[in-house]
Amino acid sequence: MSTDSRGELLEMVRSIVPPLTYDSHKGQAGRVGVVGGCQEYTGAPYFAGIAALKSGADLSHIFCTSDAATVIKSYSPELIVHPLLDKQTAVAEISTWMERLHSLVVGPGMGREQNIMDNVKGVIAKARQLSIPVVIDADGLWLVTISPEVITGYSKAILTPNIVEFNRLFQAMLGKQPEKNSSTENVKQLSQAMGNLTIVQKGQTDVISNGDKVLVAEAVGSPCRAGGQGDILSGAMGVFAFWGQDAVRRGVDNQMLREYGPSIAAAYGASTMTKTCSRSAFSKWGRSMGASDLIPEIHPVFEELFETSGTGTPIQRL
């Protein structure tokens, strides 16, 4: 388990944040796709998509069912909404769009209808073919639990289970329940069983492992468990996942990034930011805090965590 200082770990995340320059073009900072949203659940994909934008992505696409599209469109004009997920031609049509995307977030508000899950299997297969990062949360984890082969062995995948989802997946993969009071070892074992993809076990502290390294994200969140916070985490993680892979491609020189790799760096960054946003929102709203209250906190928290050097000096990005 890591004994690195918080400052070193934040510097690792800062190293993957792309510079903002006047000659950048639209989409260069991230084009994120969110696969989810059905008649019952329209808020989850909205939270994931808007969190991706507020974290720094340029474009956010939502691939949802036809009866969810109009509702999701009404939440924000900034989201690009595709009513494709329940169509027979869903995989082919979504695949055309995916060739333009940098990362994919699978699961928020997806539901568990069999035809939807079959389509999502095809979408994940296409993401693997394109070698883009995939973050899997919520009902996407249910799909992985019953069909782990869809993602096992894909090193650019990040799974974000809560304790119930983690226990279910651990049982499916290892044939037993996790050991009590051994969260770091449990997460490491599950990652290894799934071919060393990255697992983020959400909790009071988030435990992150790729089967080799284990990192505990110890940022303090809030005691309010309002629904939607996990969707914000997954959307933000979709952006950071692309940034991490792109930083490695660009040859960014950071010792912690070399040690932990881009997926753990992304997971740590998104976890730390989301928990800090939750704490900040709770300080203002208390028991009445909802997931929507985290959205305005993303900008100031991002600035505080990732736009300054370890000495508190603002990073010159222009």
TrEMBL record:
Its EC number is 4.2.1.93. (6S)-NADPHX binds at residues 109, 162-168, 231. GO terms for molecular function: ATP binding; ATP-dependent NAD(P)H-hydrate dehydratase activity. It comes from the Eukaryota. InterPro entries: CARKD (IPR000631), Ribokinase-like (IPR029056). Residues 9-305 form the YjeF C-terminal domain. Its cofactor is Mg(2+). The keyword Nucleotide-binding applies. Belongs to the NnrD/CARKD family. This is ATP-dependent (S)-NAD(P)H-hydrate dehydratase. It comes from Branchiostoma floridae. The lineage of its organism: Eukaryota, Metazoa, Chordata, Cephalochordata, Leptocardii.
